[in-house]
Write a structure and sequence with these properties.
This protein has one helix at residues 55-64; strands spanning 5-11, 16-19, 25-38, 44-54, 70-83, 89-102, 117-119. It has one domain (5-154): OB fold (Dihydrolipoamide Acetyltransferase, E2P), CATH 2.40.50. The chain contains one helix and seven strands. The protein has a five-stranded mixed β-barrel. By secondary structure, it is mainly beta. The chain starts with a strand and ends in a 38-residue tail after the last strand. It comes from Marininema mesophilum. Homotetramer. Keywords: DNA damage, DNA recombination, DNA repair, DNA replication, DNA-binding. Residues 124-134 have a biased composition (Gly residues). A motif (Important for interaction with partner proteins) lies at residues 152-157.
């Protein structure tokens, strides 16, 4: 069985950071993801997908990601339901993120948003790339930081 989701889109507003009663951080945000086709009027449409990031990843997302930022999210789809105050059953679909990456060069973001990649390691080493960003040798934008001139038609997605 496989439950894997990969999304690329823009944050619709700043992430909201909360803590559970046990002190575990959880950030939630919504990602606007363009559909690969246009509607009958020739306009692009988007899906608005709720994302949840836990623990260190959630804190990092809340601290460094802002409305409008282009990001990639990897995770799993989670469907849950609960009963609201009126007694109606509410069904919620969201992506539980275990990796979130910035997709814009440093020259395209404010200096306060320094950093390139953040991920949640759910396993063996207990580590992850949470805070200081990538080393310069791994940063594809370290050389010049100039925008890349590429059309949407050249992208594979």
């Amino acid at each position: 069985m496989l439950n894997r989701v990969v999304l690329i889109g823009r944050l619709t507003k700043d992430p909201e950071l909360r803590y559970t009663p046990n002190g575990v951080a959880v950030a939630s945000f919504r990602l606007a993801v363009d559909r690969p086709f246009t509607n009958q009027q020739g306009e692009k449409e988007a899906d608005f997908i709720d994302i949840v990031a836990w623990r260190q990843l959630g804190e990092t997302v809340a601290n460094y990601m802002k409305k409008g930022r282009l990001v990639a999210v990897e995770g799993r789809l989670q469907i849950r339901s609960y009963e609201n105050q009126e007694g109606r059953r509410i069904r919620v679909s969201e992506v539980v993120a275990d990796n979130v990456r910035f997709l814009e060069s440093r020259s395209q973001v404010a200096a306060a948003d320094a950093g390139s990649s953040y991920s949640q390691d759910h396993g063996n080493s207990g580590g992850g790339n949470y805070g200081g960003g990538r080393s310069p040798s791994n940063d594809p934008f370290a050389d010049d930081g100039k925008p890349i001139d590429i059309s949407d038609d050249d992208l594979p997605f």
